[in-house]
Design goal:
The N and C termini lie far apart (85 Å). With 120 residues, the chain is mainly α. The chain contains five helices and no strands. The chain is rod-shaped, with a radius of gyration of 28 Å. Helices cover 69% and strands 0% of the residues.
Length: 120
Amino acid sequence: MELPAAIQGESLTRLLQGFGLGAVVAIGVGFGWGGWTLGSTAAEQSATETSAAVVAALAPICVKNFQADSQATVNMTELLAESSYKRDNLLEDAGWATFSGSDEPTPGVAEECAQRLAKV
């Protein structure tokens, strides 16, 4: 049995080169514009978005609790007197970014809370 001319000799080489080039182009287009991601990249993006969602949900609670305190005006004066990069430490030390069921402040909440309070 004779093989077709398309897969013999020089034609076979060109055919394999075409498959290889097609695969490279498909991978490039898929990752570049097609939205493909590696599993590790997807896991990293998921963790980042989850953390951002937790901060977005808890920061308003921190602000509300801060403002509802009987010493709110004194606390606000103290907060605004502090430099902007230390305000989150002040909120964490006071316990405004620590919620029930946790012994530690929730990461990122104090920073977002401080930014929201500074805008008020």
